[in-house]
UniProtKB/TrEMBL annotation:
It comes from Anaerobiospirillum thomasii. It is a multi-pass membrane protein. This is Probable membrane transporter protein. Pfam families: TauE. Belongs to the 4-toluene sulfonate uptake permease (TSUP) (TC 2.A.102) family.
Length: 275
């Protein structure tokens, strides 16, 4: 097992704490679960600080990220619901597809996860961010959401990819809802609720069904590093409501651009590290 000095331990705790602050604020502001911050930071900490194999590091990063997002997503979702930003009809319609997608994505990640997930993460997020950035003022592509069957297909795809990437679903849900004429603040609020359907069952499956690798860092159970999660969670919970409050004073176009730029920076860095 890797021996770390006190200085290295404190540095890692500081990095993870800052990660928690940023992820919590972004979760409330943008309706994401915080995974676009958690996954890259955890990935780099596992590789560079704990010297974990890159293939294992990505799977641990996704599993740990989902665990970290549970309290953050609950806090953000409740705050958005209280402000009337949640479209409950969408949640009810998508529920079945979301749950099936989580199961499928968790199993794929458990048995076939590796560094290819980091490449997939980077590619999907770059496309997503560029689409959002250049279409910030564009009109929606559709007048309304499709029929319930196709909405469930959308939910399935969003949740399966989100679990494999260790994100809460907001990064994919927000652009889809915006394209279907759902107002930005409603899209963000609804995506916070979608994150609950992704991170809670996803984290439980990866925690309980994954066999803990022999070379995993201390504190790892299944594909979740509990110690890293405990360093991140407290501050992320405290800052999520601040993000929701800040979002109320920002215009929809500005919200879209912040969302896109944050995605682009993280995804490019992630892709370059994985290639």
């Amino acid at each position: 097992m890797l021996e770390l000095s006190l200085e290295q331990i404190l540095i890692n705790i500081a990095i993870l704490s800052v990660c928690g602050i940023a992820a919590g604020f972004l979760a409330g502001l943008l309706g994401i679960g915080g995974g676009i911050v958690f996954v890259p930071v955890l990935y780099f900490v596992f590789i560079h600080a704990l010297h974990v194999d890159p293939d294992l590091a990505m799977v641990l990063a996704t599993g740990t990220s989902l665990m970290c997002m549970i309290p953050t997503s609950i806090t953000a979702a409740l705050a958005q619901y209280k402000k009337g930003n949640t479209n409950t009809d969408v949640i009810k319609t998508w529920a079945f597809g979301l749950i099936l997608g989580v199961i499928a994505g968790s199993l794929i990640s458990s048995f076939y996860g590796g560094q290819w997930l980091a490449i997939l993460f980077g590619c999907i997020m770059i496309v997503n961010s560029l689409n959002t950035l250049f279409r910030a003022r564009a009109k929606p592509m559709f007048d309304s959401l499709p029929r319930p069957f196709f909405q469930n297909v959308i939910g399935f795809l969003i949740s399966s990819f989100s679990v494999m990437l260790g994100v809460g679903g907001g990064t994919l849900t927000v652009p889809v809802l915006n394209a279907c004429s759902v107002p930005p603040h409603k899209s963000i609020g609804t995506s916070s609720a979608v994150s609950l359907f992704v991170c809670i069952p996803g984290a439980i499956i990866l925690l309980t069904t994954g066999q803990t690798p022999d070379n995993a860092p201390f504190g790892t159970f299944g594909y979740v590093n509990v110690i890293a999660a405990l360093c991140v969670i407290p501050l992320s919970v405290l800052t999520a409501p601040l993000g929701v409050k800040a979002g109320k004073s920002i215009s929809p176009v500005t919200l879209k651009r912040i969302f896109a730029i944050a995605l682009l920076i993280v995804s490019v860095r992630m892709l370059l590290s994985a290639i």
